[in-house]
Design goal:
Blueprint: H1 3-11, H2 16-27, H3 30-46, H4 69-88, H5 101-113, H6 126-142, E1 152-157, H7 160-175, E2 181-185, H8 191-199, E3 202-206, H9 216-222, E4 227-233, H10 245-254, E5 258-262, H11 270-275, E6 292-295, E7 308-313, H12 315-319, E8 323-325, E9 333-335, H13 344-381, E10 386-388, E11 395-400, H14 405-414, E12 420-422, E13 427-431, H15 441-459, H16 467-476, H17 480-494
Parallel strand pairs: 2-3, 2-4, 4-5, 5-6
Antiparallel strand pairs: 1-7, 6-7, 8-9, 10-11, 11-13, 12-13
Helix pairs in contact: 5-13, 6-13, 7-8, 13-15, 14-15, 14-16
The chain binds pyridoxal-5'-phosphate.
Pyridoxal-5'-phosphate binds next to helix 7.
């Protein structure tokens, strides 16, 4: 019996809330529980966790005797080599944003030089403190801090998610409002969801406008007494379109509420796009209503993974981010971010990236990326059956009105492309990076996409393999609890030490 289909048919007739409750009640019955277990296993078998193809020794405990350094590096190199082509040839959406050999060598060397440093120990590593302060200052200056009148301050964090979580914490603790709420567009990154869950903030997600941008009037109506912050993205992850930040931030300012721009993706692209003459609406601290902003050095800042910057208008707001403890037996303690010990080496490599790129380097990289973005957007729109969502620059989301877009994604996966599946509505996106600016990549993408669409069209529905059926289920299955359960089981699988 296909339980998914059956429950889909039964539960699909109920309103979503009721379906959820019904599913939870029914899933608790032992017999149904066992059937569900089998069904989850079947679904997971269809989308197995990826495995290395090369033979690797499995370590499930610390080896009794130390291994030779050369053997360790050989094992790591073997795995890295197997994975290298997938990202270096430009077949992944996002993931590796620079990837040039010389640039990577610089990041690695910077890391190596500072691998022991920890900004928690300011007395031992004043260099780590200097590097963090300068990464923040350089990033702020790029994003509208004029260096004179207004004070834009911030901290280095471990990534965009931490930057967003910390900003939300700062608003929560500054306002002290009971049962606080954040008002965000539906396209806002899921890190806001994570912040809401971790911090006990209610999330008010507002439907998008027809152009996939935040709907300013609807957002304004969602702001209430308990609102601690309003947010928008420049651009948003799913559709790569930039919210009307000027109007949103002004709306928040008029109501005396803080506004966060999520520029995790665009912070290191849009300033240079503007310089190149692209029509970029303001999104940064030049807007008086923008009171905080997140921007990822580890995406288009071209640093190694593990750093981002969160910025604030004024020191007062940033103070609410800090953690201090005055009565711990371990001594007086403070830490600016979520981590205790912090990797000074990652900040050193981010600092190195900013210096090695320079304004002209970032401008040239942006020029190349936006040119490929324009080419792909036009090319995708020109393939019969495909439709680009909204007005994107370099993160291009597309869907289809007559073929199953997840089938198209599956056929692209077979051709070696790693794209991002989206839903509500069903779509796929590609985030263009410097990897895609190599000669021939854009043409290969468009040729493969044309073939993939033709193949999906001739296969019709029901021939799904790979991620397609999982996405199909996730998009339509009424009981979201079951979809969540499937994801949790998937994560469990990733942590199993696997013998081949
Ligand atoms: C990537 C991204 C984030 C989250 O950043 P991580 O570094 O993955 O934690 C947040 N917002 C947007 C728009 C992003 O693209």
């Amino acid at each position: 019996m296909n339980l998914t289909r059956l429950s889909e048919q039964l539960l699909g007739r109920l309103p979503p809330r009721l379906a959820e409750t019904a599913h939870r009640r029914v899933a608790r019955l032992p017999k149904v529980g066992r059937l569900l277990d089998a069904e989850y296993d079947r679904m997971l078998d269809q989308a197995p966790a990826p495995q290395l193809t090369s033979e690797q020794t499995v370590y499930s405990r610390i080896p009794a005797e130390p291994l030779d350094h050369a053997a360790i590096i050989a094992a790591l190199t073997g795995m890295a080599m197997e994975e290298h082509d997938a990202w270096s040839t430009g077949q992944t959406s996002g993931a590796v944003y620079h990837g040039g050999a010389e640039h990577l060598a610089l990041l690695n060397e910077a890391y190596g030089v500072h691998s022991q440093s920890n900004p928690l120990h300011v007395d031992v590593w004043p260099s780590a403190v200097k590097l963090e302060a300068e990464v923040v200052a350089m990033t702020a200056r790029m994003l509208g801090a004029d260096g004179a009148t207004d004070e834009i301050v911030g901290t280095v964090t471990s990534g965009g998610s931490e930057s967003i979580i910390l900003a939300m914490k700062s608003y929560r603790d500054r306002t002290g409002i009971r049962r606080p709420e954040m008002v965000i567009p539906d396209s806002a990154h899921v890190a806001f969801d994570k912040a809401a869950q971790y911090l006990g903030i209610k999330q008010v997600r507002v439907p998008l406008g027809f152009d996939y941008r935040a709907d300013v009037d609807a957002m304004a109506r969602a702001v209430g007494r308990r609102t601690i912050v309003v947010a928008g993205s420049a651009p948003g992850f799913p559709h790569g379109v930039i919210d009307p930040i000027a109007d949103l931030s002004e709306m928040a300012r008029e109501r005396g509420v803080g506004f966060h721009t999520d520029a995790c993706l665009g912070g290191f692209v849009l300033p240079w796009a503007e310089r190149l003459g692209y029509a970029v609406e303001p999104f940064d601290f030049r807007l008086p209503g923008v009171t905080s902003l997140s921007v990822d050095t580890h995406k288009y800042g071209y640093a190694a993974k593990g750093t981002s910057v969160v910025l604030y208008r004024g020191r007062e707001l940033r103070r609410h981010q800090y953690f201090v403890a005055t009565d711990w037996p371990g001594g007086l303690y403070y830490s600016p971010t979520m981590a205790g010990s912090r990797p000074g080496a990652l900040t050193a490599s981010a600092w190195a990236s900013l210096l090695a790129m320079g304004e002209s380097g970032y401008t040239e990289a942006t020029r190349a990326i936006l040119e490929v973005g324009t080419e792909l957007r036009g090319g995708i729109a020109g393939i019969p059956g495909l439709r680009v969502l909204g007005e994107p620059l370099w993160i291009i989301a597309f869907t289809s009105d007559d073929v199953d877009i997840y089938e198209v994604m599956a056929r692209m996966t077979e051709r070696g492309w790693s794209l991002n599946g989206l839903h509500h509505p069903p779509a796929v996106h590609i985030a263009v990076t410097l990897r895609h600016t190599q000669p021939g990549v854009a043409d290969r993408f468009l040729a493969d996409l044309r073939d993939a669409v033709a193949q999906a069209r001739s296969a019709g529905s029901g021939a799904s393999t790979g991620a397609a059926p999982v996405y199909g289920m996730a998009a339509t299955f009424p009981a979201r609890g079951a979809v969540g359960e499937l994801l949790r089981r998937y994560v469990d699988k990733l942590y199993e030490v696997r013998r081949r």
